[in-house]
């Protein structure tokens, strides 16, 4: 299912085409059409690499306030086959980012746990705790994956390896 093209003068069609249950970020500023992002060199490069179908899908989402780069990453990770999966991924990432986690780590956690917000959130919470304890970040990631986010087992292994 594809969203209709965004009309540069009205975003009404965007809101009508989304499910009322779709979780969207709060608008930080006035919504902008996709073409407004062409003024940024990196954005223009990203947009030119997209097919028209992908631009048609991303346009309404960007107009609603999601950053272009995040929308493109979400599209790449979730694919074009499911609009709901694409929007759910963006919404989950947005909620995790609002908790203060770094964007790259959020994207990695979402991918590691096949877009499960609860599992990615638990991973990020534990990763932050163990990082604050001084353990190596790559080792934390490995141990949490091996132990399925089980805190006690992961911590035991981290402590044993540190000695």
Automatic annotation (TrEMBL):
Pfam name, any one: UBAP-1_UBA2
Alphabetical GO biological process terms: ubiquitin-dependent protein catabolic process via the multivesicular body sorting pathway
GO molecular function terms listed in the Swiss-Prot or TrEMBL record: ubiquitin binding
Domain (Ubiquitin-associated protein 1-like UBA2): residue spans on this chain: 123-160
Entry GO terms, CC: ESCRT I complex
PANTHER family assigned to the protein according to its UniProt record, in alphabetical order: LD44032P (PTHR15960), UBIQUITIN-ASSOCIATED PROTEIN 1-LIKE (PTHR15960:SF3)
Name of the protein: Ubiquitin-associated protein 1
Lineage of source species: Eukaryota, Metazoa, Chordata, Craniata, Vertebrata
């Amino acid at each position: 299912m594809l969203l209709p093209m965004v009309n540069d003068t009205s975003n009404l069609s965007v809101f009508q085409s989304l499910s009322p249950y779709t979780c969207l970020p709060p608008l930080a500023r006035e919504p902008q059409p996709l073409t407004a992002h062409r003024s940024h060199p990196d954005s223009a490069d990203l947009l030119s690499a997209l097919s028209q179908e992908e631009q048609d899908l991303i346009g309404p989402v960007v107009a609603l306030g999601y950053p272009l780069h995040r929308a493109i990453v979400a599209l790449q990770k979730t694919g074009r086959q499911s609009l709901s999966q694409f929007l759910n991924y963006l919404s989950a990432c947005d909620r995790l980012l609002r908790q203060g986690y770094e964007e790259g780590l959020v994207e990695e956690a979402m991918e590691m746990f096949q877009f499960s917000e609860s599992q990615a959130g638990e991973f990020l919470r534990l990763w932050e705790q163990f990082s604050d304890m001084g353990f190596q970040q790559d080792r934390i990631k490995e141990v949490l994956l091996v132990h399925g986010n089980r805190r006690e087992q992961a911590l035991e292994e981290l402590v044993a390896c540190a000695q």
